[in-house]
Design a protein that fits this description.
heterodimer; A: alpha+beta; 39% helix; globular; B: alpha+beta; 5-stranded antiparallel β-sheet; 12 helices; 12 strands; 28% helix
Chain lengths: 218, 327
Amino acid sequence: MKQSSDRSLGVTRRRLLEAGTVAGALSFVGDPRLAQADTSSDAEASSNLVTVGLQINGRAHTLALDSRTTLLDALREHLGLTGTKKGCDQGQCGACTVIVNGRRINSCLTLAVMHAGDEVSTIEGLANDDGLHPMQAAFVRRDALQCGYCTPGQICSAVAVLTEHKAGWPSYATADVASEPMLTDAEIRERMSGNICRCSAYPNIVAAIRDVVEGDRT
Amino acid sequence: MKPFHYERSSDISSACAVAARPASKFIAGGTNLIDLMKLEIETPANLVDINALPLGGIEETSEHGLRIGALVTNSALAADMKVRLKYPLLSQAILAGASGQLRNKATTGGNLLQRTRCPYFYDTTKPCNKRQPGSGCAALEGLNRMNAVLGVKDNCIAVHPSDMAVAMTALDARIETIAADGATRTIPIDGLYRAPGDTPNIETVLQPGELIKSVVLPPPPPGRQIYRKVRDRASYAFALVSVAAIVAHDKNHVQDARVAFGGISYKPWRSAEAESTLAGASLTRLSYDAAGTAALKNARGYGHNDFKIPLARRTLRAALAEVTGTI
């Protein structure tokens, strides 16, 4: 079986992908034009290089970037943090959701250079030595995914929804915006509407988030 | 994306000076501008990041209104308790727009200045007078379901996509700006947007380098407030039609009404016709329909968007019935 032969080699899909990233990075060193596939000319690009310091999952990084680099591309292409996904690349799907200074944003619609000094949390930063983040564990327990491509964005978004709710923020599902709403299923659905799931795993996503909300309450 | 020179400004005057240069743009949240830059519909040579400028905060004014800093995010504005208590339709309108992620980035000033989502403005293979003046308007004969039915002519039928601005228009908001030479001025929100005319590419009266500093809301007018939005899906979609209404009434009659529509024109559409029809009118479906008929009197559909005319009338009726409790 395919699965067992992979195990016998001690190679996981993730390791293979990471190896690909490193090989890609090395080839970029050899031919800088490849690293700037979206660049119309090297001369133009080199005149717009910027140095950016970012705090990502508690670690400081300093990157030399073309000023056009989105935060998403900085994470994926320059730091190898491929947990954050590129779905639509235009702010419509939420796969690229990360948490910046405590607030969720679409990393595809912001430039890395605009986040100098900011604290960025990605899906890779949620688990710690004690294990998965409660939201990650709830998604696993509730089987809140099928293909899994949107899942890192869903989880980052859901973690931030809880923060926003604790701060008393209303949503469009809140009948009286001056009230402090409970996180009902209708509230969860409305607050998560910026994260699209092509496999339509929504019922289990809502269940996973509800579990964490109820866990927090008890 | 075209290359650009990036600059982060720490004081207002130098930000305005840089932005007054040709092909320069301010960037705040960037949720609309970066999207358009990727498609090379916006191609600034200089990008002036204003996020470090002191333009945050929501404070009460001496007239007991609110002054909202241009950099206040849509999320923060919708969640502010002063807004939720005194201007609930503004919170409702903001929360009706975009997604949680986008509202965390989008700012008050940027929301006002966001560009249309007309599909032909985005499709660089098609003519668009807003994107490329003189090239024509593909929406006239195209898929114009989302386009305007009021206040536009045949050279551009794009709509302004904001929900927030519709509520602010009903609230008589004022826009405070500062120019590159330091001059300040106050613009009523209804005067911010230019009719498309022969230059649909020029959307506001702001001059190059002129920066929105804040939005001032006068004290809320008497009456109950509502924002009602109709769209293709329950969340995270632009309006087909929306209505912001503020109505003061006694047991049987409207005393004072304010009505603004979204999704039907190049700007949030304040309807003096609906308001004068409603003043003194009885709290009946007949009155609400008369207001809708007056508001849409000069409306014109372009085929796929013909439905917006009756939809706007019905949305107004539903909003008025709900806000007056006379369903």
